[in-house]
Design a protein that fits this description.
With 300 residues, this protein is α/β, with parallel strands linked by helices. It is built from 9 helices and 8 strands. 40% of the residues lie in helices and 17% in strands. The chain has an 8-stranded mixed β-sheet, with helices on both faces.
């Protein structure tokens, strides 16, 4: 299946973004500033109110669409390798998701490594999830994220299970990073195909800053190695060209064996986290539309 013209054009820009990130990878503040800058100028939908709150010391961005279904809410954990990113860098996507789903969306501004390595992000996420469930005790509660945020979403759901907290009614995982060891074959074999994420960069900038090497195989750091029984219905979307492709495939297989209801969608020719370009790329828009249908199912 050939890519759309827009996908090919955006992919070229994404390759340039990857090359720039490689050049400044030793300057973490520059990487963060570049990510914030790029997020600022992405097209954002109208009809979504942005407000801020603090939950147990964790800043949270709240997105409320003008047209809202009060029975459905979603918490979104942003990606960025646990090292870069914020609710601001992801507004174009989270606002689009809030509007498409007609749901209030909470986006925690969890602490980042290396200033706050593992388990800081996990502690922040579970604090916000606990408050989220207390704020919306009767609603359909959904949990979503992309890349590292998707891995953190799985870890948060598993911790909620273990601590007997209310569980998400559904998990939505975009290009999840679930194996921080980066030992899967696709990490190296698809390095030349993934426009956004490179193996060496992910290992040096993200994994090495996020946790100690001896922690990488911990089930909380790498949820692929966890006991997945008891997870809610889960949608996984993965691009064919991703270095993290094997994470999604292996997770779907292991979760299914554990009795989890899994839906796996593979996008032909797409790069890491392509869905975040839904405002620009037809293939990404189609993936988001499919996800919204799936996320609506618990309340239909």
């Amino acid at each position: 299946m050939s890519k759309s013209l827009r996908a090919r054009l955006v992919e070229k820009i994404v390759w340039q973004m990857r090359a720039r990130a490689d050049r400044v990878q030793d300057d973490l503040q520059r990487l963060r500033a570049d990510f914030e800058f790029s997020g600022r100028y992405q097209p954002k939908p109208r009809g979504v109110k942005i407000s801020q709150r603090v939950v147990e010391g964790v800043p949270v961005e709240v997105l409320t669409p003008t047209v809202r279904n009060p029975k459905r809410v979603l918490m979104y954990l942003h990606g960025g390798g646990y090292v870069i990113g914020s609710p601001r860098t992801h507004r174009a996507f989270t606002m689009t998701l809030a509007k498409a789903l007609a749901a209030e969306v909470w986006v925690p501004d969890y602490r980042l490594a290396p200033e706050h390595p593992y388990p800081a992000a996990h502690e922040d996420a579970i604090k916000v999830w606990r408050a989220f469930t207390e704020t919306f005790p009767d609603q359909v509660r959904l949990l979503a994220g992309e890349s590292a945020g998707a891995g953190l979403s799985v870890a948060t759901a598993l911790r909620a299970r273990d601590e007997h907290l209310p569980m998400p009614h559904g998990l939505y995982l975009i290009s999840p990073w679930l194996d921080v060891t980066l030992t899967a074959r696709a990490c190296r074999e698809r390095d030349h195909r993934d426009a956004l994420l490179g193996y060496a960069f992910t290992d040096k900038v993200f994994a090495s800053n996020y946790c100690r090497k001896d922690q990488r195989q911990s089930p909380r750091v790498s949820p692929l190695f966890a006991d997945l029984a008891g997870l809610p219905p889960t949608l996984v979307q993965v691009g064919e060209n991703e270095i993290l492709y094997d994470d999604s495939i292996s997770f779907a297989d292991r979760a299914s064996q554990a009795g989890v209801e899994i839906t796996l969608e593979e996008a032909s020719g797409m790069w890491h986290a392509w869905v975040l370009f839904a405002a620009l790329v037809p293939e990404a828009k189609a993936s988001l539309r499919s996800a919204v249908r799936w996320l609506n199912a618990p309340t239909d």
